[in-house]
Each structure stands twice: as C-alpha cells, then as structure tokens.
C-alpha cells in the first residue's frame, strides 16, 4: 500500500492516490489528498475517476471528512455510489464552469 503523509504544525496531508503507475485514462493520475487542520478535513479528488476511487477506498484509510470535493466536476465518471458510501462527509463541493 502506498500512502504519503506530511505533517506541519496542526496540519496533516495524506496522499491516497494514485497508487499505480499505468492508467488508461489520464484523469486517474489525479492526486487524491486528505488534508486536515485542527477539526476540519477535506478530501480533494481532482479529476480522479472510478479506478482511482476504488484504490482510495481499498487502501483502508479513514475517509471521514468535513468537506468532499467531488471528482471530475461531478461527471458520471466520478464520485460513484460505492465511493460516496465509503466517504463520510458533511459538505460537498462541486467545481463547475459557468457558461
């Protein structure tokens, strides 16, 4: 299991994905990071899709967070049901472009 943890003062950052080195889709190279500062934590998923989400869930990390940033702008290719079931969050943020 690959996991990189960085701490600095009251903050902690844990890189949960990517775990592999070869993916068919470039989005699965997106870094998934859990960042914690005092009592607030965020799960930032970039453009990670289903493959990366499965790896994030399977690595046994605590996925309890205050804020979940939805993957790949809320597309069908990301933030699937299994991933949402495993991530215990209070707030969801979706990054989209206004046209």
TrEMBL record:
It comes from the Bacteria. PANTHER family: DNA INTERNALIZATION/COMPETENCE PROTEIN COMEC/REC2, RECOMBINATION PROTEIN 2. This is Competence protein ComEC. It comes from Acetobacterium fimetarium.
